[in-house]
Amino acid sequence: MENSCNCTPILKRKLCYCGEVPILKTSWTEMNPGRRFWGCRFYGKVGACDFFEWGDPAPHARYKSVMNGLLRKKNEAEEEIVKMGRTMRNWKIALWVVLMFIVVREAIRLHDYRVLDLEAIRLQLPSDCMTSECLIWRQSDCNCHQIA
């Protein structure tokens, strides 16, 4: 039985005009979505020939419509994934900024508590005692208040 399509079986594959075995590629154009064809392995390079031969029969109109719709949905989904990736990156940056703000705020709060604590200790010391040892080691360990 004779082959009714415009296809050439792989066993009967001829060489392209360069003398090389052509490779099977897939068309993703709107007119031939998903249709396979044989083309020169050097296509797009210097010295490539223009060998071209369809490997699949021409698609029906309904097939083209369905494939093009699926391709559009796939492309839209990929674009959405890219957008979601950007959004997630922006949220990570915002979260990092908030976290750093909290860390800095708590560090300042801790520093303020220590300053207030030192100020309270200073107020408890006699007015002539202003050494850093008095403030750091508290009044009981202060050398300047010990009676000789």
Question: What are the key terms here?
Answer:
three-stranded antiparallel sheet, mainly alpha, 148 residues, rod-shaped
What does this structure look like?
There is one protein chain. This protein has a domain at 1-59. Helix content is 47%, strand content 9%. 5% of the residues are buried. It is built from two helices and three strands. A three-stranded antiparallel β-sheet has the order 1-2-3, with no helix packed on it. By secondary structure, the protein is mainly alpha-helical. The mean pLDDT is 80.
Quick summary of this structure?
The chain is mainly α and 148 residues long. 47% of the residues lie in helices and 9% in strands.
Radius of gyration: 40 Å
The rounded distance between the terminal residues' Cα atoms is 124 Å
The helix-and-strand class reads mainly alpha
Percent of residues in helical segments?
A: 40-55%
Low-confidence stretches: none
Order of helices and strands: EEEHH
Strand order of the largest sheet: 1-2-3
Characterize the overall form: rod-shaped
Beta-strand proportion: 5-15%
How many beta strands in the DSSP annotation? 3
Largest sheet: 3 strands, antiparallel
Mean pLDDT: 80
The oligomeric state of the chains shown is: single chain
